[in-house]
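Can anyone check this?
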Amino acid sequence: MVLDKEESVSVVSLQSREKPRGCAGCNGKIRDRFMLQALDRFWHEDCLKCACCDCRLGRVGSTLYTRANLILCRRDYLRLFGVTGNCAACSKLIPAFEMVMRARDNVYHLDCFACQLCRQRFCVGDKFFLKNNMILCQLDYEGGHPNGSAERLPQ
């Protein structure tokens, strides 16, 4: 196995005249109607699992990760090998698997991504301003000196 790699998982239909293939997980013959193909090998749907949490990777999504001879789901790959950082608002650690908001070079917990003066939370499409590395709502920004830059949350 490759040391550090992201792979796709595809579902393959077994043709009726096709000789059953061997499963890379259990070494048994695959006689099911469908099988998974990943890492250039074939798998029973129940045999392609994350080495940490045992979730079935054919159901979780179409991507798996390999590192140190482990087959992992995205969450466990990031938990074990991902880069963590600190929230620009609260300075607490952000786990590598957690969803975040970004504004320029700053990274925020979802709960921390709010106006840092009035604590108003933003909705999709709301305009926010980044001034001296502080996130501000439009009202608080306009009440101050306008030398920050406006950004809009993606819709």
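Reply from J.R.: I decoded it. The mean pLDDT is 82.
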